[in-house]
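Continuing the batch. This is chain 6 of the set; chains 1 through 5 are on the previous pages. Same settings as before, nothing changed between runs. Recording input and output for traceability.
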Amino acid sequence: MKYLDEYRDSVGAEKLAAAIARTVTRPWTIMEVCGGQTHTIVKYGIDRILPPEVELVHGPGCPVCVTSLEMIDRAHAIASRPDVIFCSFGDMLRVPGSRGDLLQLKSQGADVRIVYSPLDAVSLAAANPSRQVVFFAIGFETTAPPNAMAVWLARKRRLTNFSVLVSHVLVPPAMTAILQSPGNRVRAFLGPGHVCTVVGCGEYEPIAERFKVPIVVTGFEPLDLLEGVLRVVRQLEEGRAEVENQYARAVRPAGNPASKALIDDVFAVCDRKWRGIGLIPLSGYKLRPEYHDHDAEARFAVSNIETQESAICISGEILKGLKKPHDCPAFGLTCTPQNPLGATMVSSEGACAAYYAYGRHLEKTNSRDAMVPVEDLLPLGAGKEVVR
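Output for chain 6:
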């Protein structure tokens, strides 16, 4: 496919892998922030063509994975009401709460609907004035503009039956929390390309300067990631800690000014609890007071719902880069995409789901293989799905 195949070229990948091997002289641990990047890394075996000195660990870059358990339970409490049409993106329907998921709730008669845009939920509210329509507004900065637009539009149209359950999370505070966490091994980041299309790169410069970690904003194709790793390794080896933009074809340094202005109009920064990680100060969005009438959490009085995380699931340690899916004794056995114990398995962008989809649950060890020839892995090799 034009403009895509060039970023999946095995010859180009081989050259980048060789350049990384020539550059690295000591062990480095690099975290890719975004779940989409994790998916590509596992699908194409990017981590297995890198020299043994370079280890990739998987960050908290999946908004489905990090939506707190209590927020899922609050969603269930709202969706179970007979007067509510509860709208969500499809990837949230199977995320387990304390008592099942939204899909099970739907099977029991709740009016839970998959929408492809928050504006679809606004249209539902206009078409159903006697029902309360609630949209589950989750995501990183990437999805904040359309979610903000839905609230702004509902207010403009005076749709008093439309509200949002806001669970937005922000990437830079999570990166800071990871760097400050006990046992942290992360020495550099592959930054989230899609997030930066909205907010730009400026918010990452204080992190690079404070913690002396390179941050390379990176795309999502194999060559994007390999070039990002090469740039990071060069910085590490040279003792530099700067923000670089590998994904310049999509990311502008200042981001998208119109989207940022809309976000600032509708949302304010707040503390937010992350699933498996805990409370991270100033790491989320909430509605500003002037949009309070569209706050589902307040409208349905569910903010007092509190829950406890499962003691079995180690998704929090995976999201912080401390462990990998193979380190969990339940991985691929009692925890599968059909029966997920944690959100890192249920989300298509979760690290556990990616490992499972591409057959790594069948492997007996978590030890890294020796370097594998690129031609054995790209473009299909390691990405070949296991037939079950």
